Amino acid sequence: MENSPIMIALIQNAALLLAMALIFDVTMRRWQMAKVSIRQVLVGIAIGGIGITLMMTPWQFVPGIIFDTRSILLSISGLFFGLVPTLIAVLMTAAFRIYQGGAATVMGVSVIITTAALGVAWRQWHKERLDRIQWHEFFLFGVVCHVVMLLLTFTLPIETAVSVLKAIALPVMVIYPLGTAFLGELMAGRLRRQQLAAELAESEERLRLAVAAGNIGFFERDLQSGKAHFSVEWKQQIGYRDDELQNDTLEWQNRVHPDDLPVVLEKVDQCAAGSAISYEAEYRLRHKSGAYRWILARGEVIKDAQGKPWRLVGCHVDITQLKYTENALVTSRNQYRLLTESLKDVIWVLDADTLRFRYISPSVERLRGYTPEEFMAAPLGLGLQPEQTEALLQHVRTMANALREGKINPDEFFENEAQLGRKDGSTIWTEIVTNYYINAETRHVEIRGITRDISERRAVQEQIQRMNVELERRVHERTTQLQAANQELEAFAYSVSHDLRAPLRAIDGFSRALQEDYIEALDAQGQHYFRRIREAVSHMGNLIDDLLNLSRISRSELNPAPLDLSALALSVAGALLARQQQQKVELEVTPGMQAIADENLMKIVLENLISNAIKFSAGATPPRIQVGADRQDGKTVFYVKDNGVGFDMAYADKLFVPFQRLHSAAEFPGTGIGLVTVKRIITRHGGRVWTEAAPDTGAAFYFTLTDTE
User: Fold this and answer.
1) 485 pLDDT exceeds 80?
2) What are phi and psi of 419, to 5 degrees?
3) What are phi and psi of 420, to 5 degrees?
4) Which phi and psi (to 5°) does residue 132 adopt?
5) In 3-state terms, what secondary structure has residue 328?
C-alpha cells in the first residue's frame, strides 16, 4: 500500500483532533467556576468523547487494524489534565476500542493506556509550569510517545507487525510528533493567555488597591483650551460624588487656599509655557465640609507632535494626616528637647562600633562639667583614669558581642554604679542604666543610657554601713552578755536543783518520820499545823520542778518537724484522764491537724492546756473538752476549749505571768507556772498564745505556730 493515502488519512485525523481541541478549549472556559471535583469528571468525559470521535474516523490498515490520533489526545490529556480526567478518558476510549474489536484490539488498548500513562508521568517529572514548556519539548514528548506506540505493534503476529511498521512508521513519526507538539503548544498557549489575564487582573487589582489605600486622585488638563477632568477618587478626597462637582479648572482654582494659590499657579504656568516638564506642590484644598485638606500634587507635561506642551496629567494625594503627624512630631521633638534639657539625669546614646556619642543631653554639664559638644568630639573615656577607660572599652566590646551572639536581648536593662571624674578634677558617684540594641539603618550596636548623680545616696549607704558595723559590735556585746546570763541561769538552775532540794528533802524526810511515829501525840491543832507543813513542802517541790522545767525549755534546742497534732492530743488527753477519778469527761479532738513543731515541747503545751481544762471543768455536768483548729486571717489557729468555771477577761494578762493565779490554790491546786511555760514554748516557735473566757461559761486558749501558716 502506498504511503500517500496514509499521509492524507493521518493529516485529516490530526486536523480533526486540532479542531476538537479548539472546541474543547472554548468549552473549558465556561467551566472555570465549577467545583474542582465536578470539573475533573466533566473534563474526563469530554476528553473521552473527543477520543471516541477520533476513533470513529480512523485510517484502516487491514480490517481489524486501525490507526487514529487518540495517542496524541491521551498523552496530552495526561500531561495537562492529570490523573483523574485522563483515567476517565482511558476507560471510555478503551471500552470503545474493545467494542470495535479486530486483530489489533490488544495493541489499541495498550496504546491507550501507555500513552496516557506517559503523559501523567511526564507531568510528574516535568517540575516547571506547563505554560513554560517550549515547542521542541512537546515534539520530543511526541517522539517518545509514538516510538512506544510503534513498539506496541509487536503485540501483533510478527509478520503482521513488520508489515504494519513498514507501512505506517514513516507517516506516524512525521505527523504524530508534530500533532502532539501543535496540540501541546495550543494548550500551553491557552494556559499562557490565562496566566497573562490573571496577572493583568492582579495588576489592575493592585493598582486599584494602591489607589484606594493611598487615597490617590487623578487629574488631566488641556493646556491649550484649559479644560480639565478630575477622577472619581479626586472628587472623593474633598467629600464629593462624581456628579456633584464639575470638571472645571476654575472649580479647582476656587478651592485652593488663598495663601497657597499663587505658588501653585506659578508652577502650573511654568509647565504650560514649556519652561518646566513637571511640577510638585503641597497646598490646601477646601473640602465639602468647609475645612481644608492638605494635598500633595504632582503633574507632568505631555507634548504634541510639534513638541509644544499639550496636556498636563497628574495625581493628588491627601496628606492631611501626614501633615498632622509631622506637626505632632515637631511638637514631640521640642518637648523631648525641653525635657532632656531640664532633667537632672543625663540621657545619652553611644555607638558601640565607633565608640562615639551620637547624643548626650545638656544636663551632662551640670553632672560632669563638660559640655555635650566636648563629649561628642572626644573619644570615649573623657574625664576617666586610663585604667577606667580601658575597663570601659572592654566592657562595651564584650556587651556588644553578647548582643550580636544572642546572649542578651534588646529588652534587657543593666545597672551599674561608677565613680566618674569631673572637669574640675573632683569625682562623683553615679548610677548608670544601659540598654543595648542594633541600629536598623547602620547595623551598629548602640547603647541607650541614663546617668544620674547618686552621691547623696552613696553617703547614706556609707553611713548605714558604719551604723551596721556599730550595730554588729553592739550585738556582739549583747550576745556576750546573754551568754554570761545563760551561764548564770544554768548555775542558778544547778543550785536550785541541788542546794535547795537538799534541805527540802531533809524537811520532807523528818516530817514524814514525825507523821509515822508521833502524829497521835499531837492535838488537833498540832496535826493541822503538821499537814500545812507537809503541803508546803510538796508545793515547794512542785515549784522547784516547774522552775527547772521552764529553765530547760528556754535553753533547750528547738527541733521542728512534721507533727500529727491530733494524734499527740489524743495521747496526752488519754494519759491525763486515766489518772483522774472524777466523772467521765467528753473529749473531742479534730482529726488531721498537722503542724511543723518540736514534738517534745508541743507535748508539754498540750499537757498544760488539757490538764487545766480537766481541772477547771470538773464541776460541769458533764465536763467537755475540745481540741481543734480554725483558719483566721490566712493562718491556722489551734485551740483547747472547756466548759468549766472560766474567768473575768479583765485579769487575762495575769495568766501568763509566773506565780499569778486567778483562783485559790485550795480550790484549784497549782503553781502558776504552767501557762508561762506554754507561752514560752509557743513564742520559741514564732507563734503567739491568747485566751477568751467568761465566768461560769468556760475558757478557750488559742495559739499559732509560724510554720503552720
Assistant:
1) no
2) -95, 110
3) -110, 150
4) -100, -5
5) helix
The reported pLDDT for the residue numbered 703 is 93
Choice between 706 and 223, residue whose per-residue pLDDT is larger: 223
- The answer on pLDDT for 4 being more than 60 is no
Q: What percent of the chain has pLDDT over 70?
A: 80
Q: Is 611 within 8 Å of 688 (Cβ atoms)?
A: no
* Cβ-proximal residues to 428 (8 Å cutoff; 6+ apart), any chain: 367, 368, 419, 420, 422, 453, 455
Q: For residue 597, which of 686, 689, 691, 701 has the smallest C-alpha distance?
A: 686
**CA pair distance 599, 134, nearest whole angstrom:** 95
pTM of model > 0.70: no
Nine cell digits for residue 225: 483650551
β-pairing, 445-453 vs 292-303, is: unpaired
Rounded to the nearest 10 degrees, what angle do helices 70-81 and 83-100 cross at?
160
CA dist 38 → 28, 75, 241, 609 (Å): 13, 22, 45, 90
Q: What does the pLDDT read at residue 22?
A: 59
Phi, psi of 596 (to 5 degrees): -110, 105
- Per-residue pLDDT at 10: 56
Beta carbons of 358 and 351 less than 8 angstroms apart: yes
Q: Where are the alpha helices (DSSP H) in 444-520?
A: 455-495, 501-518
> Given the C-alpha cell 565613680, which residue does it identify?
419
Cell digits of residue 290? 468647609
> Can you spell out the DSSP letters for 625-665?
EEEEEEEETTEEEEEEEE-S----GGGGGGGGSTT--SS-T
Compute the distance between CA of residue 477 and CA of residue 206 in angstroms, rounded to an integer. Answer: 86
DSSP state of 369: S
Residue 136 CA to its chain's centroid (Å): 56
Gap between the Cα atoms of 150 and 143, Å rounded: 10
Q: Could you tell me the three cell numbers for 405?
A: 551572639
Angle 105-125/70-81 helices, nearest 10 degrees? 30
Are residues 585 and 577 in contact, defined by beta-carbon separation less than 8 angstroms?
yes
Residues 26 and 65: beta-carbon distance below 8 Å? no
Q: What is the DSSP string of 314-326?
A: EEEEE-HHHHHHH
* CA distances (Å), origin 264, targets 72, 252, 617, 647: 68, 11, 108, 102
Beta-carbon contacts of 656 under 8 Å, excluding residues fewer than 6 positions away, are 675, 676, 678, 679, 689
Residue 31 confidence class, pLDDT cut points 50, 70, 90: very low
Residue 13 · residue 68 · CB < 8 Å: yes
Whose cell is 542604666? That residue is 433
505 vs 643, which has greater pLDDT? Answer: 643
Strand partners of residue 301: 312
Distance CA 170, CA 173 (A): 5
3-state SS, one letter per residue, for 408-420: CCCCCCEEEEEEE
